[in-house]
Amino acid sequence: QLVLTQSPSASASLGASVKLTCSLTSTYSKYAIAWHQQKPQKGPRYLMKIDSDGSHAKGDGVSDRFSGSSSGAERYLIISSLQSGDEADYYCQTWGTDIRVFGGGTKLTVL
Amino acid sequence: EVQLVESGGGLVQPGRSLRLSCIGSGFTFSNYAINWVRQAPGKGLEWVAFVRSNSYGATTEYAASVIGRFIISRDDSKTIAYLQMNSLKTEDTAVYYCTRDPYDSSGAFDSWGRGTLVAVSS
Hints:
The complex is a heterodimer.
Chain A: E1 4-6, E2 9-12, E3 18-24, E4 33-38, E5 45-50, E6 56-58, E7 66-71, E8 74-79, E9 88-96, E10 99-102, E11 106-110
Parallel strand pairs in A: 2-11
Antiparallel strand pairs in A: 1-3, 3-8, 4-5, 4-9, 5-6, 7-8, 9-10, 9-11
Chain B: E1 3-7, E2 10-12, E3 18-25, E4 33-39, E5 45-51, E6 60-62, E7 70-75, E8 80-85, E9 94-101, E10 111-112, E11 116-120
Parallel strand pairs in B: 2-11
Antiparallel strand pairs in B: 1-3, 3-8, 4-5, 4-9, 5-6, 7-8, 9-10, 9-11
């Protein structure tokens, strides 16, 4: 079964970096994923797609502070030079030919 | 500029029906699969349904929670996608978002609408 697992919460200090993790079930370890950001009381925003080789394609206007990488069945979103405006929920998303799947989301707190 | 704009939400009683619309602009609507995603109050994102492009016969897929009750469709001449929601339940209460994905090359939702709120209550 195609499932994405995310930690419910993460925190990091202003100006620091943080790495959020999205784990695919091992059978689907070669699947690409997408990351989406949702700020409080707002709709989601597409950030980037990450392939299994770590290559990533960002959405329009996404800051250079956001990057992605991969290792095995894990996909990462790295945010550098954290700003207060980065405080949000972050969702990973993947897909098969007949399904779309979200992870449970990670709530990022900027300290 | 790519835009997806949802409409049609509102307050509806359990067991009744509602139809949501999603108008796309700023891109070649017919080339994309269109999805509906919902978010219940205080909860995460849940994929609901998608309709493939006409290149794939405009065929559809649904989440298990809505199979047999919801119907997704598209009218490329109007660049609109619909979500017909029947036999609504209180647990269908959510903000409903329209998204697109390329389907052929990727299923990543690369653009989102702002959402429309559906409240199911007696």
